[in-house]
Amino acid sequence: MKTTPVLCVALASLQSLAAALTIAEINGNKFLSPYSGKSVTNVTGLVIAKGPSGIFIRSTTPDDDKATSESIYVYGTSVGANLAVGDVITLDGKVTEYRSNAAYIYLTEITSPKNVQVLSSGNTVTPLVIGKDTLSPPTVQYTSLDGGDIYGLPNGVANISVVNPVLDPTQYGLDFWESLSGELVTIKKPQAIKTPNKYGDTWVVGDWATTGRNKHSGLTMSDKDSNPEAIIIGTPLDGTKNPTTAKMGDEFEDITGVVQQVFGFYYILPLTAVKTTTFSSAAVPPTTFLSQGKCTAVTVGSYNVENLAPTSAHLPKVAAHIIDYLKTPDLMTTAVPTDDGVVSANATLTALVNSIKTLSGVTYSFADVDPPGGNIRQAYLYRPEVVSLYQPNQGGPNDATAVVPGKGNGKGLGGAPTLTFNPGRIEPANEAWKDSRKPLVAAWRAKGAKRPFYTVNVHWSSKGGGTSLHGDIRPPINGVVAGRIAQANVTGSFIAQILALDPTAKVIAAGDFNEFAFVQPMKTFSAVSKMVDLDEVTKIPIEERYT
Ligand SMILES: *[C@@H]1O[C@H](CO)[C@@H](O)[C@H](O)[C@H]1NC(C)=O
Ligand SMILES: *[C@@H]1O[C@H](CO)[C@@H](O)[C@H](O)[C@H]1NC(C)=O
Ligand SMILES: *[C@@H]1O[C@H](CO)[C@@H](O)[C@H](O)[C@H]1NC(C)=O
Ligand SMILES: *[C@@H]1O[C@H](CO)[C@@H](O)[C@H](O)[C@H]1NC(C)=O
């Protein structure tokens, strides 16, 4: 058999190739390992950290490629038992791509470690300082598969796990973190950009360049920039617990830990619990963007008082917010849910109004339209000594209010556009509102004003079904975005009708749009309605545009 010796040669060279693999070669320069599913032998690395279920090893023969991580996680609950940080070891195992959910990016790891041998001990382990020993995290884009806009449409067109793009850690945030997978890193001057979750997981940035930094030390997302430079600090490897009391802006001692893909996000798992050094409350002054009480027109506030019922323990707190933060505005858009089988929101709104009255002496009236089934709906609170409904005509759940020309000569109250139902709902039968809340429209007259003004109180569909910015699916799914675009069109068209009849009409659209100001539904809304975002009108700096 002539072919047999040839086959033997091929097998032998494959064998020696596998034996020679470095950690960088195992990781490769993409998200997925070129050796996924393959057995590897005699992998050499320095033990840089130990976790409860495995160890992290770093290559002793690194390459010069920034895209290939020099470290890797070795999964095995007993692999670390007889090993110490600082040991240089060799081991055999299997290259595995692991994720616990199809929506996550894979973690490249070595599983089933065996034949672990210690070559030397007591070697120095030096973490890589992010931004000094590594590149700095990219600040704008997440991956090359997002088309330059993580909220761009269409979304969900590619999966990292399928395309497996070559990493560009200079351009893309997830590529950057992936290129350090398994690596021991230090964050200098870490600062919390969010309050931790109940496990103490905390989003931070270090001393590297950031975009969108706001005055309260948060990172504000803006058009095509969703801040991939932020990273989550997760559960410490040594079993200690991070504080759950940190606040946005708190500074921590330098954090050293390993980069790991956990629960669908890139994390740094610190060697030990993070320690706060400076508390934000001392450093961050409150906003000065407050009413001076000198407004000679109508003050308007908006507050989605989620899940409020007459018996809610937090009802007085909501009332206090309306008094202390919103300064008991003349008119308020709100949403009051909780489906308790009672369709009328009368009792809830009455309880809220009574609570505000008790705490501040201010008396509100309210207006809404009961929905036919589900209970969540928008409502208005208003101070009747300042504003009242203009030509009120209570709409029912299925009544579509329409804009009609006023009966006067175009000047003064009589000529202003009126609503056939006031308050009323916009096209309740329109498909765009299927399983969602219809906007509540009202025309108002302020005391002494010559013309009415109009409010559109929205609560567009929520982002249910959306996927994570750190997820496998690119660009990430912005849940129900098509629904909100349709809702933007219907809401915007209605407002355009008011403005067609009276180009000088004052219209406020407020409530819960369930969308970022720079994403398509709001662009559609602006284009169709001809309304302008209040943040644009007031020229608030882009990084201060958040609530
Ligand atoms: C395993 O790797 C070490 C160096 O990391 C080398 O000294 C040794 O010869 C290798 N063993 C085999 C069987 O290739
Ligand atoms: C991406 O993965 C999801 C599962 O998370 C799957 O439903 C979808 O079809 C995949 N899309 C592409 C373009 O491969
Ligand atoms: C609303 O509730 C108040 C107090 O509970 C009650 O006096 C009033 O009759 C109710 N109005 C309607 C329309 O149900
Ligand atoms: C808005 O809806 C109208 C009527 O259905 C449609 O003709 C138009 O294309 C839509 N516009 C946008 C921006 O979606």
Automatic annotation (TrEMBL):
Keywords noted in UniProt: Signal
First and last residue of the signal peptide: 1-20
Keyword Signal: yes
CDD domains assigned to the protein according to its UniProt record, in alphabetical order: YhcR_OBF_like
Source organism: Staphylotrichum longicolle
Protein name according to UniProt: Uncharacterized protein
